Amino acid sequence: MDTFHRWVGIAIVAALGLIALFGLVLRIAGRDEAPKLFWAMEHYTENVLVIQVVTGLVLLFLGRRVVGGPLVWLHYLYGSLFPLIAIVGGRIAGLRREEREYVGIAWGAFFAFGLTTRSLMTGLGIGI
Q1: In whole angstroms, what is the distance from residue 86 CA to residue 91 CA?
Q2: From first to last of its 128 residues, what are the pLDDT tens digits of the chain?
Q3: Which end of the chain is more exposed for a tag (fewer CB within 10 A), N or C?
Q4: Are 15 and 41 in contact (CB under 8 A)?
Q5: Neighbours of 53 (CB within 10 A)
């Protein structure tokens, strides 16, 4: 289960980075609407993030803990609460826009990308 949690974390970081990059390309191209692929990527990444958080909670309840320095507890915040806030904030920002709704989503994905990258680093014991 640890290996599953690790690989899903890597996939989430990659997907969030792609969503942010996709949004940037759409904005530079001047597109008013995002293609269905953008929304599908965003939707599935959100769902996988929820699965990842549940998997992490199961590992936590089974007694598995992140090992490392004194700041490893940040792994739990960087990997669950903060990215969910960034994604929900991006969704709300996108809904408030009348055009280019994808821009808010892309910003949320950008911040969630950074946060989940940090979570992955703390979970793997890199740069603590």
Answers
A1: 9
A2: 778 988 999 999 999 999 999 999 999 999 888 899 998 998 899 899 889 989 988 998 998 877 777 777 788 888 888 888 888 888 787 777 777 888 888 888 898 898 889 888 888 877 65
A3: N
A4: yes
A5: 16
Q: Where are the domains of the chain?
A: 2-124
How many residues does this entry show for the chain?
128
Tokens of 45: 């990444």
Please report the pLDDT score of residue 104 as a whole number.
Answer: 85
- 88 touches 112 (CB < 8 A): no
